[in-house]
Amino acid sequence: MTQLDMSSSFTIPMENGDVTYFPNWLSNKHARHLMDYFIERLQWEQPSLLLYGKLHKIPRLQAWYGDEGTQYEYSKNKMEPLPWEPRLYKLKQACEMSCQTKFNSVLANYYRNGQDSMGMHADDEPELGRQPIIASVSLGQPRRFNFKHKDTKESHKILLEHGSLLVMKGDTQQYWQHGINKSKTQHGARLNFTFRCVLSKLNADK
Q1: 17, 23, 29, 31: CA torsion to nearest 10
Q2: How many domains does the chain have?
Q3: Which of 35, 92, 144, 200 has the fewest Cβ atoms within 10 angstroms?
Q4: In-domain check, residue 2
Q5: What is the CATH number of the domain that holds 114?
Q6: Quick one: which of 77, 79, 76, 108 has its CA closest to 91?
Q7: pLDDT tens-digit map of 12-33
Q8: b vs e for 73-110, b when ≥16 Cβ sit within 10 Å of the residue's Cβ?
């Protein structure tokens, strides 16, 4: 059974944003067990993206799991969902309990060391809806998570710790970008799971 701690949290003071952080959402022992399990069991891959006419492998490993039909596309990279792995599905249910919403898919990222990263971006694809709720679970090496407002350039940084949960909702994706830089000091492996709800093509076009 997933062990959750919702007793401590704080909201990041962001204009046009709604972001809440739960630093000890999972117990250290349970989070460590899940990390070892997911590194071994999930179907990790390293796809390539077309940038300036050339293919470049993304600087991390990733996997896309979800309900049937939850195809997801970003930077012209189309991903078909893998069927839910049982423990990953239980983690989804725990996020649903904490966020009081339903998720049908997850993008799993495996940062092998400090040289793996995630460029600044917003999860604002039409198939996520205008105000998506995204639950981000972190396991392993703490890494700095950067926020930058698209218009005002206001910025925030938060250290995403082992066993933590970060919830982004409201207008956050419309006004803010987020990402993780390479690090020369944080060398350990990290897993991150961003649970979300992909809308059907019909609903996404409304």
Answers
A1: 10
A2: 1
A3: 200
A4: no
A5: 2.60.120.590
A6: 108
A7: 999 999 999 999 999 999 999 9
A8: eeeeeebebeebbeebeebbebbbebbebebbbbbbbb
